[in-house]
Amino acid sequence: xxxxxxxxxxxxxxxxxxxxxxxxxxxxxxxxxxxxxREDLLSYEEIVEILEVMVPMGIRKVRVTGGEPLVRRGVVExxxxxxxxEGLRKVAVTTNGIMLKxxxxxxxxxxxxxxxxxxxxxDPDRFREITRGGDLHRVLAGIDRLLELGVPTVKxxxxxxxxxxxxxxxxxARLSLQRPIQVRYIELMPVDHCGMPHAKYxxxxxxxxxxxxxxxxxxxxKVEDDDAGPATVYRFPGAPGTIGMITHLTNSFCDRCNRVxxxxxxxxxxxxxxxxxxxxxxxxxxxxxxQDLIDAVHAALAIKPKAxxxxxxxxxxxxxx
Length: 321
Ligand code: SAM
Fold this sequence. Notes:
alpha/beta; twelve-stranded mixed sheet; 12 helices; 12 strands
């Protein structure tokens, strides 16, 4: 699947729910999100139907996100079903980790090989503040369980926030010295509608590099192409884990974008920050053929923007990052 700018699209991020069991400061809008009526969400069968069309077209990796994907009933069976789609190489999940300890083993059995866990702090009180009530110990126990089970790729995502968690940049990085984890620093996207003025809270990924180099000199790390995603990846000498920098604001990676997104309500979204969407649910819910879906995906690719065109308020909690 090539877009008009010659980029090969092989990665689909699927948000399966707009519901979440946390209310993170940087994700939950101040005017609480109106959850979509359940009947508006794609059923698992509908998502599988889309994947059965898009995988033969070139999708190789699917990441299931949310909202919090692990709160949707039946998610493990759904993931196992995705794993059986011929040609789909990787099934990944992004989670806040609250339900991970219990679900780690079923996820592995379902064939999930790549799990990203949001982890903005190692301080239980600060975690409770950032997530508005979350229990850090549950998340850490979940990560431990993933490592015990030998999940091939475990990443933790820290959204950098000036004056909130910036003092913990080093302590998070040290996790990569002890464990085979990729610690990723993510630049805060503009989310003024969440009550976090960007100018006040933004901290560039580059600005934390000297602090990490003071721990030990970082070296560029080699990782499998689509495992790096948009991150620039480093490693402390001899460390089992790696460090990733996601610099969508200071050093955009749109020229190597390989992804599109599917929202819980069945919009194929061509750019996280753009309004270019194609309504696949409308096709699914009327008499249709596989060719109708193929045509819609081609039409969608044709309007994928060259680059993020500024940033504006959108429901990150629903689209899934
Ligand atoms: N509930 C899951 C979780 O917490 O990981 C999946 C959904 S969450 C929207 C996906 C990712 O988006 C998380 O890693 C989160 O940190 C990131 N994210 C949410 N809001 C963000 C923002 N304003 N700036 C940067 N990253 C953000």
